[in-house]
């Protein structure tokens, strides 16, 4: 498919994305400084360029990344499409994979993450409509069209802050820290409190809030779901320190480009227009919109496609390093590379199995079979750190033989060319390779990437126990029972 002039193209270009970022004055706090436009901040501007690249990329690969809107046929990003067939799922996965490849899978929260989520929510608006929430359900259907047709970049904040995880939201810090409703007008609800952790907030047009945990039935003020422009008065984004390196990309090839940023969101009596509210006070619905919409299968389709790309990148780094330094000849290094490949291949197989086992639900939305994903959900937070460990074991001290470009081109240029060479790479290539690998496993951004993989879909322990709880145990039990009868 080419972006034919006669067909309306809703998908944005990088330029349009950047104009959108600059068009809203947001309240970002970084290092004591209030930033209203991320493009005017030297470090924040770096990942904005990578995001713009993602928006341009969809036009360069329109046949894979764009699809016709079911409403008017205009071209939209394929990840906005509510899947109505297995082919839709496969096309969506291809779009996610190609997008993730641009950052080697290191950007976890590119817009496709929430595109997939809201396509799922809109496709199952009947679940949102339960218990007389027809208006909220209609709002989410409308909102998904807005996301799709304006090709928005969105962030989300699902968890209440870490005050005391052993207590319900309403019992922590007098109930004041967790996001909750404090008032209502004819046209809006008023919300106060905070939520973590809005990745991409600095590069988003809109903030979305939806459930990330269960609530007690009495905690109605905390049962909220809505969406707002990031520039809405009262919204404050408090960022961690930036890991973006303005220095030469030779020195920090990933940190220079891909720090997608994470922020706590503070809601200082924020007015949410009622047509942007999806759920208000329904504590039962708060759980059901996650469990009964098929969201798990959909979001893991996105998450593990990106994970497949990131694991492939890690495997590629290990393979190229081992061949550069000759250690590939040792059996135990081959075994370590084999372990990395196993993770790649098992992830790819899980995605294929989930697509092969996909079925339409009662609303005709095609859902991936979530069983292989549930199994991966417990394992991936262990595999990603394991891949980093294996890379360190393969690379050894080579990660420290990494002078900067200034040294490579400086007075010791000839010494560096001689003493930093590897059997399979000249000095410059070897230094570039190890600097890239260190930015993956060991830099501030690399460390953040590892933490992200451990927690972004909740922790491995709870997810493994969830997999056990919802697993079908019939066959396994029957194997045992047959010997307990005589
Ligand atoms: C880099 C990064 C980016 C993220 N981006 C986003 C984002 O964009 N949007 C978003 O909504 N969220 C995001 N998250 C947050 C993510 O949703 C949470 O980190 C995750 O849900 C875990 O919650 P927590 O970090 O508060 O850890 P906690 O829940 O406080 O857990 C800390 C430790 O305590 C244990 N623990 C806590 N509660 C229990 C319990 N009830 N039972 C047993 N053990 C328990 C955990 O297993 C863990 O070991 C991000 C997280 C990270 C690290």
TrEMBL record:
<dbReference type="Pfam" id="PF11794">
    <property type="entry name" value="HpaB_N"/>
</dbReference>
<dbReference type="InterPro" id="IPR024674">
    <property type="entry name" value="HpaB/PvcC/4-BUDH_N"/>
</dbReference>
<dbReference type="InterPro" id="IPR009100">
    <property type="entry name" value="AcylCoA_DH/oxidase_NM_dom_sf"/>
</dbReference>
<keyword id="KW-0285">Flavoprotein</keyword>
<dbReference type="InterPro" id="IPR036250">
    <property type="entry name" value="AcylCo_DH-like_C"/>
</dbReference>
<protein>
    <submittedName>
        <fullName>4-hydroxyphenylacetate 3-hydroxylase N-terminal domain-containing protein</fullName>
    </submittedName>
</protein>
<dbReference type="InterPro" id="IPR024719">
    <property type="entry name" value="HpaB/PvcC/4-BUDH_C"/>
</dbReference>
<keyword id="KW-0560">Oxidoreductase</keyword>
<feature type="domain" description="HpaB/PvcC/4-BUDH N-terminal">
    <location>
        <begin position="13"/>
        <end position="279"/>
    </location>
</feature>
<keyword id="KW-0274">FAD</keyword>
<feature type="domain" description="HpaB/PvcC/4-BUDH C-terminal">
    <location>
        <begin position="289"/>
        <end position="484"/>
    </location>
</feature>
<dbReference type="InterPro" id="IPR004925">
    <property type="entry name" value="HpaB/PvcC/4-BUDH"/>
</dbReference>
<dbReference type="InterPro" id="IPR046373">
    <property type="entry name" value="Acyl-CoA_Oxase/DH_mid-dom_sf"/>
</dbReference>
<dbReference type="Pfam" id="PF03241">
    <property type="entry name" value="HpaB"/>
</dbReference>
